[in-house]
């Protein structure tokens, strides 16, 4: 039996929690393996609560953010690592792309999740998309024999941004996270540096559940997350 593998890549250490923690928890609950990679800790632009502490330092903020993200990932059954490239601005060059591509070759994920290509309010999120998109393409090697190590093509989806209507985000997949919402809630609790976002994303899960109920007629769906496919999925029949 093949164990399905998921790779989630965020620009900052908390991005996966708000946008995909439920999908990760559903994946691992079903026996899948999930890895979370963040390109930065969001130590400069997304750790405002921590900077209220007198004498705070960048290195201490990174340490706290790493601990928070690790705890959040564990809450949904995933591993966590950070490339620590810095944020605001996130600058990710060829070395970062090559590093992620090598990780993809090793992990060979069946599904990859990251940010949408466009976000007019966050300069780092589109950078993460470009890194993931390029690394994924390099990893698959155009699906032909290549002179370097490759991995099978993966499904490729983007998770919902904070303001989807301004980011060109159109949901094509809803994941019912009702049975794992407690795990997502624990993951959100772990991100104390951005605790103010928990209410927003709890409400968002309710909104998306409403949409999922309308699509399916399944009244049992109480919480859901939305995703958009970047490449088509292939099925044997409809």
From TrEMBL:
What InterPro entries does the record tag this protein with?
Answer: GlcNAc_PI_deacetylase-related, LmbE-like_dom_sf
What are the BP-aspect GO terms? glycoside metabolic process
Which GO MF term does the entry hold, naming one?
Answer: hydrolase activity, acting on carbon-nitrogen (but not peptide) bonds, in linear amides
What's the superkingdom here? Bacteria
Q: Which UniProt keywords apply?
A: Zinc
Record-given protein name: PIG-L family deacetylase
Organism equals: Nonomuraea longispora
């Amino acid at each position: 039996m093949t164990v399905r593998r998921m790779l989630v890549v965020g620009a900052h250490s908390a991005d996966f929690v708000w946008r995909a923690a439920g999908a990760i928890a559903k994946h691992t609950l079903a026996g899948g393996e999930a890895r979370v990679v963040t390109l930065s800790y969001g130590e400069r632009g997304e750790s405002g609560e921590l900077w209220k502490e007198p004498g705070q330092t960048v290195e201490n903020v990174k340490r706290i953010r790493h601990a928070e993200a690790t705890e959040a990932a564990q809450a949904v059954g995933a591993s966590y690592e950070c490339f620590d490239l810095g944020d605001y601005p996130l600058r990710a060059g060829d070395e970062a792309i090559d590093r992620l591509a090598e990780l993809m070759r090793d992990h060979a994920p069946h599904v990859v999740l990251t940010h949408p290509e466009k976000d007019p309010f966050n300069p780092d999120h589109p950078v993460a998309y470009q890194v993931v998109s390029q690394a994924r393409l390099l990893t698959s090697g155009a699906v032909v024999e290549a002179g370097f190590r490759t991995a099978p093509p993966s499904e490729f989806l983007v998770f919902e941004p904070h303001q989807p209507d301004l980011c060109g985000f159109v949901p094509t997949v809803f994941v019912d996270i009702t049975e794992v919402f407690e795990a997502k809630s624990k993951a959100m609790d772990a991100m104390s540096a951005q605790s103010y976002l928990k209410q927003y994303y709890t409400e968002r899960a309710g909104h998306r559940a409403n949409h999922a109920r309308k699509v399916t007629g399944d009244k049992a769906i109480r919480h859901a997350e939305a995703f958009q496919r970047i490449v088509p999925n292939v099925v044997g029949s409809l």
